[in-house]
Amino acid sequence: MNEIEIKAHVENREALVQRLNQIATLQASVTRDDTYYSLPVHGAKQLRIRKEKSANSEKILVTYKRKELRNEGSGFETEVNEEMECLVTDALPLETFLLDSGFTVHLKKHKEVSDWNYTAKDSKGNDIPVTLELCNVPPLGDFLEIEILSSETEPQKIQKLQDLLLEVLDLVQIPRSKIESRYYSEMLREASASSESSN
């Protein structure tokens, strides 16, 4: 399954929450602590271990993504990620194996997330489930992630889904100029480098 996703900077969190509540259904609020492991010779290939907590549950997810930024004609780059994921009951055996096998902790990321579900319509009137996630990622700030899960691989069909993501972004009144094409990992590395250089 592919994630087709855009994310955008959020300047007015309270106003956005009001708009999301008007058009979509709030599902849950969770915290996600992600640790990314990589081999020094294959730094671009990462395995993520996510520890997710909500008010009444906890779970651990192991994820591998084949990431790609694509522009199928919309003028904006969209993440199209092939995601493979599984649940585990205890992260320690895997964490220990990875470190003993030469993997290093490449990045740690904390996100506070509120999820809304929205149903969009494609050009044929079919329902398309859309997930909207309002995320706070210290020290980067607030972002809205808009995501569609799809098995589509044809560029024309992906372009239509990308266009649908942009329509949802317009609906919640976030300017397209606020779209962020960098991965969080890039932004976190840049923020860390900036902080170190200013000290």
Structural features, described:
- This protein has 199 residues and is an alpha+beta fold.
- The protein has a single domain (2-198), classed as Hypothetical Protein Pfu-838710-001 (Beta Barrel), CATH 2.40.320.
- The chain is built from four helices and nine strands; from the N terminus they run βαβββββαβββαα.
- The protein has an eight-stranded antiparallel beta barrel, surrounded by four helices.
- The model has no long low-confidence stretch (mean pLDDT 90).
- Can you say what the CATH homologous superfamily is? Hypothetical Protein Pfu-838710-001
Helix content range = 25-40%
> How many independent structural domains?
1
| CATH architecture classification | Beta Barrel
Strand content: over 45%
Question: Could you state the oligomeric state of the chains shown?
Answer: single chain
Order of helices and strands: EHEEEEEHEEEHH
CATH fold-type name: Hypothetical Protein Pfu-838710-001
Please provide the count of β strands. 9
Q: Please state the CA-atom Rg, rounded to the nearest Å.
A: 18 Å
* Helix-and-strand structural type: alpha+beta
Please give the alpha-carbon distance between the first and last residues.
Answer: 43 Å
Overall residue-averaged pLDDT value? 90
User: Globular, elongated, flat, extended or rod-shaped: what is the shape?
Assistant: globular
User: Strand sequence of the main sheet, in spatial order?
Assistant: 1-6-4-3-2-7-8-9
CATH class: Mainly Beta
